[in-house]
């Protein structure tokens, strides 16, 4: 199994807009369940109580490298990724064997 974890910092300065963008990311990524070849997709939004924390996290599992690679180029994922890029300022990711 490969665990794929991605975190984002949102670009919006306004707290209400940041919350809306975080919800948009969460809704879109969780909408990929059953569509892309992921074993599990969980999305969390930071509580906003600690300065410096990243705003949104994707925690997902894939059966292997082939499934992760297929996810990366899946049309539904690419559509979500375009939205995510439009509202984020920075991205960090880790893929590891779990």
Automatic annotation (TrEMBL):
InterPro entries xrefs: Dabb, Dimeric_a/b-barrel
Domain Stress-response A/B barrel: 2-96
Matches recorded under Pfam families: Dabb (PF07876)
Gene3D superfamilies: 3.30.70.100
PANTHER family: BLL2683 PROTEIN, STRESS-RESPONSE A_B BARREL DOMAIN-CONTAINING PROTEIN
Protein name in the entry: Dabb family protein
């Amino acid at each position: 199994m490969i665990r794929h974890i991605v975190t984002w910092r949102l670009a919006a300065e306004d707290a209400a807009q940041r919350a809306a963008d975080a919800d948009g990311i969460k809704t879109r990524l969780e909408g990929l369940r059953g569509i892309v070849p992921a074993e599990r997709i969980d999305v969390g939004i930071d509580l906003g109580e600690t300065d410096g924390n990243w705003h949104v996290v994707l925690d997902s599992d894939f059966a292997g490298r082939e499934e992760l690679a297929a996810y990366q180029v899946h049309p539904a994922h690419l559509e979500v990724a375009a939205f995510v890029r439009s509202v984020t300022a920075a991205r960090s990711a880790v893929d590891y064997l779990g």
